[in-house]
Design goal:
Layout lengths: L1 H28 L5 H35 L2
């Protein structure tokens, strides 16, 4: 169960990064930041979303595996 809590904590940390950089995405969308100014943030946000998806897939697999075992 510690592994699941660790994974959920990691997901929450990545979501917090996304939340903390939302204002930059909005500024970019509204034309207040150039592509070069936003580039690093854009890459980091993509990495966060990708990692969240990987971790969520792991949790789905874990849940499925435990249900199959009867836990």
């Amino acid at each position: 169960m510690d592994d699941i809590q660790k994974v959920q904590g990691e997901i929450n940390a990545y979501r917090q990064i996304l939340t903390n950089t939302d204002y930059l995405a909005i500024k970019y969308a509204e034309g207040e930041l150039s592509e070069s100014e936003y580039h690093d943030t854009k890459v980091k946000r993509r990495e966060c979303r990708d990692r969240i998806h990987e971790l969520e897939d792991y949790l789905k697999w874990y849940d499925y595996a435990n249900k199959k075992k009867g836990n």
